[in-house]
Amino acid sequence: MPSSRPRRSVLYVPGANPRALEKALGLGADAVILDLEDAVAPTEKAAARERIAALLAVPRRPDAPEVVVRLNPLAGGLGIADLAVILPAQPDGLLLPKIATAADIGAFRRAAAETAPGVTVPIWAMIETARAVADPLSIALATDGDYPLTALVLGLNDLAAETGARQVRGRAPMLPWMMGVLAAGRAGGLDVIDGVFNDLSDVAAFEAECLQALDCGFDGKSLIHPRQIEAANRAFMPNEAALAEARRIAGLFDEPRHVGLGVLAVEGRIVERLHAEAAKRLIARFEVIASRGG
Ligand SMILES: CC(C)(COP(=O)(O)OP(=O)(O)OC[C@H]1O[C@@H](n2cnc3c(N)ncnc32)[C@H](O)[C@@H]1OP(=O)(O)O)[C@@H](O)C(=O)NCCC(=O)NCCSC(=O)C[C@H](O)C(=O)O
Ligand SMILES: [Mg+2]
């Protein structure tokens, strides 16, 4: 089941940038990804790890964004070194880069269990390799075991680099992969977050891409700069009409007269239990956003 936590705006924050880390939790993003991978040079990895662990050690307010740490790949040893420092600090999630197959998730789970026995943290998987978009379902269904898989995050920069597909406005070359990942994520009961938009100067195109992601069914958009947060939050914010509709149908099947029914007609339209569950999630997400003053 997709999460009831809002993930409209998911901001990458380089672990090598102390100023960005200092600001990260107060910028209004629903979630932040404190990055140890692509945004951190090899010589900065160790310092970035310690900096992120120190930030995680500070108790967070109840209305703080979700704090996820992107690790380095296990191959090569950096990912193991990351795990040893980050896992005991218990972030809200760990984002695994360059996941190619379900076996990579299994390898991560084994490494995590050896590195910090007894500490369980939800995992998010980056879908950014040709192998992964060719078979996203096998990854999305790798939900069993400790370290529950809860979200997929598209990495379209890496995917473009590996496949040669160009990142053009409207994303026509990427759309079949994007929708395949979306469907796979939903089949696994996962949240799915769209990739980043690289051009900070083109605000209109960024907003259009947020709306496209919403239309496609994504739960939110990953971001590279604080100035993208507000537009993403706005685009993925449940609107008044959707909320009013959700409030109308969320509790319908809990009413004694409807117990045992699987489908109802409301104002001439069919409502099934799955609609009521989706309505409850929408309301729960909205309530978290409202509690943050959003
Ligand atoms: C793109 C940037 C390098 C720009 O940085 P900068 O020149 O410092 O921008 P500004 O001067 O406009 O910054 C204004 C203030 O905002 C803070 N800031 C900037 N970016 C962030 C951020 N991401 N999180 C938090 N705070 C941020 C600055 O510190 C300034 O603060 P102040 O001094 O108080 O004014 C920079 O934005 C950046 O590094 N962005 C993240 C890039 C990144 O993480 N890339 C890797 C992830 S994307 C990816 O890999 C996706 C996937 O894997 C794929 O394959 O597609
Ligand atoms: Mg990437």
UniProtKB/TrEMBL annotation:
Name by which UniProt lists this protein: Citrate lyase subunit beta / citryl-CoA lyase
Annotated Pfam families: HpcH_HpaI
Alphabetized UniProt keyword annotations: Lyase, Magnesium, Metal-binding
UniProt xrefs under InterPro entries: Aldolase/citrate-lyase_domain, Citrate_lyase_beta/mcl1/mcl2, Pyrv/PenolPyrv_kinase-like_dom, Pyrv_kinase-like_dom_sf
Protein family per UniProt: Belongs to the HpcH/HpaI aldolase family.
Source lineage: Bacteria, Pseudomonadati, Pseudomonadota, Alphaproteobacteria, Hyphomicrobiales
Keyword ATP-binding: no
GO molecular function, one term: magnesium ion binding
Binding site for substrate: 70, 128
Chain positions recorded as Mg(2+) binding sites: 128, 158
One GO BP annotation of this record: oxaloacetate metabolic process
SUPFAM superfamilies cross-referenced by the UniProt entry: Phosphoenolpyruvate/pyruvate domain
Domain HpcH/HpaI aldolase/citrate lyase: 8-226
Magnesium as UniProt keyword: yes
Cofactor dependency: Mg(2+)
